[in-house]
Design a protein that fits this description.
Blueprint (H helix, E strand, L loop, with lengths): L17 E5 L4 H5 L3 H9 L4 E7 L3 H4 L7 E5 L1 H4 L6 H15 L5 E4 L4 H9 L4 E5 L12 E3 L6 H11 L14 H13 L5 E5 L11 H13 L5 E4 L10 H9 L6 E2 L5 H10 L2 E5 L2 H8 L4 E4 L5 H4 L8 E2 L28 H12 L4
Helix pairs in contact: 8-11, 9-10
Length: 362
């Protein structure tokens, strides 16, 4: 609720007409940033809030009630700026779109070079970002704050709090009507009743719990009649990681229970929203599941859940014993394809978390 008092910007709520949020990527990070427009709309109820987001992730924010306009950022296309006429035209068009609304406030929630540049290009009167932003992104701001919170969500909310804005850590996500309609038709076409979602893939193999263990969890969920079918979610460039899972379900004569859809981001969100359970790695699907308040079991390896885990849902996290030791060094970049750590997590431990989430035991 707004008090009518000015914040660090010196502007009262009635004086703030346009706000820009810059959070282009990645998918999971975009999903857990949605509390920011909610907070800003509560502080500035008459302001229009725009969000710059990578074109492929527009679905995550376009239906959010606090977001008035989404500005797609075509990173792949604009990255060729100056080397192709089409890309150069697109870059100038993007800059014009940023500047046409004369923003009163712009918040860089990413803190990387390109987001800092986008914030600067907006020519907002007050450009707010992290004092310790990487890649010299802080050069794009005229208001910088040192935020010492641990979790990414708390860092972002700490930034608006430093501006005197009350934060509302509401991570609720919203599906577009067309995606809801797609889901209903898809479930009918595939004869899907009760189902669980598995999201077993990742860009970094060190973050992937072995596929054979995911298969065992899926098999047990079906045999124990917890669900009727499994929906397996994977990005198009990660679907080849599913080979061993599909092979096992064929071996068990359960292939008809396995569904591997090709979806848009919005359709994937709807599948997660409607599922009975989500089992996943440290991935975008996890944060989408949190945004819909789903029962979750998530397996972490060389990434730190205190920093990037499911916000306020630590009871859903399973870690190897080694990663729980004080002083353990989380270094996924140094072990890109090494699954030895995450492989130490047993099926039984994950099954126990599933039981706790769903309220059953066997």
């Amino acid at each position: 609720m707004t008090t009518g008092k000015s914040t660090k910007s010196g502007l009262t709520p009635d004086q703030v007409r346009r706000i820009l949020i810059v959070r282009p990527s990645a998918l999971g990070d975009v999903a857990r940033t949605v509390g920011i427009p909610t907070s800003l709309k509560a502080q500035y109820p008459n302001a229009k809030i725009d969000w710059v987001v990578n074109s492929m992730f527009v679905d995550v924010v376009k239906s959010h009630p606090a977001v008035d306009r989404v500005i797609p950022f075509d990173r792949k296309r604009i990255s060729k700026f100056g080397r192709s006429i089409d890309a150069t035209k697109a870059g100038f068009a993007f800059r014009r779109e940023l500047r046409e609304h004369r923003y009163d406030l712009a918040f860089d929630m990413q803190g990387l070079a390109r987001s800092g540049l986008i914030t600067w290009l907006s020519q907002s009167k007050r450009r707010i970002g992290f004092k310790n932003a990487r890649e010299m992104a802080w050069l794009g701001y005229n208001s910088r704050h040192q935020i010492d919170e641990t979790h990414t969500v708390d860092q972002m909310h700490g930034l608006i709090e430093a501006e005197g804005i009350e934060s509302i850590k509401d991570l609720q996500l919203y599906c577009a009507d067309e995606d809801v309609a797609w889901l209903e038709q898809y479930k009918q076409d595939k004869s899907i009743g009760s189902y669980a979602c598995l999201a077993p893939t990742a860009r970094w193999m060190c973050k992937c719990w072995p596929m054979e263990k995911y298969a065992e969890i899926g098999k047990r969920l079906i045999e124990e009649k917890v669900i009727d079918k499994l929906v397996v979610l994977a990005a198009p460039n990660e679907q080849d990681q599913l080979t061993s899972l599909t092979r096992l379900f064929n071996h068990w004569h359960m292939a008809e229970k396995l569904i591997i859809p090709k979806t848009t981001v919005g359709q994937m969100m709807c599948l997660i929203k409607d599922c009975k359970l989500l089992v996943c790695n440290d991935s975008a699907a996890l944060h989408i599941g949190v945004g819909f308040g789903k029962p979750i079991a998530t397996v972490f390896g060389p990434t730190d859940p205190e920093f990037v885990g499911p916000y306020d849902r630590m009871e859903t996290v399973v870690q190897p014993e080694a990663a729980k030791i004080d002083g353990f060094k989380f270094d996924y970049r140094g072990h890109k394809n090494d699954q030895s750590l995450i492989s130490d997590v047993s099926v039984e431990v994950v099954w126990d978390v599933i039981g706790n989430q769903l309220g059953f035991s066997f």
